[in-house]
């Protein structure tokens, strides 16, 4: 059996989760393939069709931002629906969401996105790790280690369910009502987030890491200036991985010594 997961990871949480799932699936004697949807992957339409056709089950994995899936994943899901639907026969589909505080995006919302495609949601799980937004509080590594341990248990169980053909639907609960309210306001804030970003010329070394790592290609250099555009998916990758902490938010330079950047669960 072959299980293929399309994934988007802002700063590492989701990449860790899908890598763990792939490891468990492979240990159980099956194939697992991970496919990044970053702009750098440059997936062609025919590639996507072939991947879906050749896989026994298809997964989608992403972080949750403000009770919703990131714009990059929503756009990718719409693209997949346009390319494949409706499939001649039902194909099992699984979803992995990573989050820091509360996952207020549920399986019902996912089912709406998959409607009419032939992709049938049979598994939906949430993996809590930590938020990727900087804080003046040091990262609680002990708490994160416990969450990673619980995450591994959940992902191993998910692998068992996928292979056995059993449903594994989680994510129902009162947080979905909160999510419904959040999602009315957050999309606009995310859409405008790029307008808050900038680069501090005094600390920037012109290493271009931000441009190279942007998953949507929404940063470019124009003369001595860095321009952020509306394709931004608010993943915080540029902010968290800038070697000198030169990315600003609302014009503010956050000292990396006081505001440590988050670079994934294994950093």
UniProtKB/TrEMBL annotation:
Pfam families: Fer4_9
Name this polypeptide is given: Uncharacterized protein
PANTHER family assigned to the protein according to its UniProt record, in alphabetical order: ADENYLYLSULFATE REDUCTASE, BETA SUBUNIT, BLR5484 PROTEIN
4Fe-4S ferredoxin-type domain segment(s): 195-224, 227-252
Superkingdom: Bacteria
Gene3D superfamilies for this protein: 3.30.70.20, 3.40.50.360
Keywords: 4Fe-4S, Iron, Iron-sulfur, Metal-binding
Domain Flavodoxin-like: 3-149
Entry-linked InterPro entries: 4Fe4S_Fe-S-bd, 4Fe4S_Fe_S_CS, EFR1-like, Fe-S_Ferredoxin, Flavodoxin/NO_synth, Flavoprotein-like_sf
GO function terms (MF aspect): 4 iron, 4 sulfur cluster binding; FMN binding; metal ion binding; oxidoreductase activity, acting on NAD(P)H
């Amino acid at each position: 059996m072959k299980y293929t997961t399309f994934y988007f990871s802002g700063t590492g949480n989701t990449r860790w989760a899908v890598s763990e799932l792939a490891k468990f699936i492979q240990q159980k004697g099956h194939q697992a393939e991970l496919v990044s949807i970053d702009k750098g992957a440059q997936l062609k339409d025919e590639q996507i069709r072939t991947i879906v056709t050749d896989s026994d089950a298809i997964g989608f994995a992403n972080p949750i931002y403000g009770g919703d899936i990131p714009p990059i994943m929503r756009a990718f899901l719409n693209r997949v629906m346009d390319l494949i639907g409706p499939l001649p026969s039902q194909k099992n589909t699984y979803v992995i969401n990573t989050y820091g505080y509360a996952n207020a995006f549920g399986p019902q919302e996912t089912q709406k996105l998959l409607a009419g495609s032939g992709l049938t949601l049979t598994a939906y799980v949430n993996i809590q790790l930590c938020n990727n937004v900087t804080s003046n509080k040091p990262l609680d590594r002990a708490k994160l280690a416990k969450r990673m341990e619980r995450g591994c248990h959940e992902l191993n169980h998910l692998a068992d369910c996928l292979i056995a053909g059993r449903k594994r639907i989680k994510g129902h609960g009162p947080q979905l009502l909160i999510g419904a309210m959040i999602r009315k306001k957050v999309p606009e804030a995310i859409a405008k987030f790029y307008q808050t970003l900038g680069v501090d010329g005094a600390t920037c070394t012109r290493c271009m890491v931000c441009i190279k790592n942007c998953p949507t290609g929404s940063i470019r250099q124009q003369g001595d200036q860095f321009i952020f555009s509306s394709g931004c998916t608010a993943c915080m990758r540029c902010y968290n991985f800038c070697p000198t902490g030169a990315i600003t938010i609302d014009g503010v330079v956050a000292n990396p010594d006081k505001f440590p950047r988050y670079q994934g669960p294994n950093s």
